[in-house]
Write a structure and sequence with these properties.
200 residues; mainly beta; YmcC-like fold; globular
Length: 200
Amino acid sequence: MKTKNLILLIATIASLLSSCDNDKYSDFTTVPNDYFPLQIGDTWEYDDHIRKVTGTEKVNNIEYKVVTNKTYRADTLYYSYNNYYRLGSYGKVYQLYRDKSDEFLFLNFSRREGESWSYETADRDDQKWNVEVLPELNFTINNHIIKNCKSFFYNVPGCADEEHQITFAPGVGEIHSYSTAWGISQTIQKTKINGIIRQF
C-alpha cells in the first residue's frame, strides 16, 4: 500500500513539474505581472518615443498583445512598428520574432541575480542574445526614488555595439534603457497604466 501511494505521489509531482515548464503555447491569460503591465491602453512615454498596448492579435493559435512603438524626431513621427508579447507563468514574458514564426523568452522576472538565458537573434542567423539578471536596485527619476527595480543585460557574444541594459519598475514597466556601447539612454517621462496617468 505504501509503495502504491509513493508511486502516485511521484507521478503527481512529475505531472506538476512538466506543466510548469509547458506554458510556451498555452492560451494567453491576463495574469497580473507587476513589472510588465500589458492591458490594452497602457502607454509609456520616453524621451523621444511612445509605446502603447493597442490591441490583440492571434498568431500561430496564440493570442498576443500588440504594442505599437512610435519614434519622433523634432516632434515629427519618424517611424513606427509593432511588437507582440504574451505573459507566461512565473513572471515570464514571451515575444514574437519579427517573422512571427515563433516566440522567444524576452523576460523572466522570477530569475535571480546572476542567472541567465539565451535566445536566437531576430535574423535567426545562429547568433544568440544572452540575457543576464542584474542586481535589484532603486532607480531615481527627477528626485523620485523607485524601489525594487529589476534590470537585465542583453548581449550577443562576438558582436559589437549591440549590448544594452533595460530596467523595469513594479507597477510601471520599462523605465530606463541604456546602450553600454553607444552611451545612449531612454528614461520614462509619463505613463498611463490601467487608466491611471503618472508623470515622472
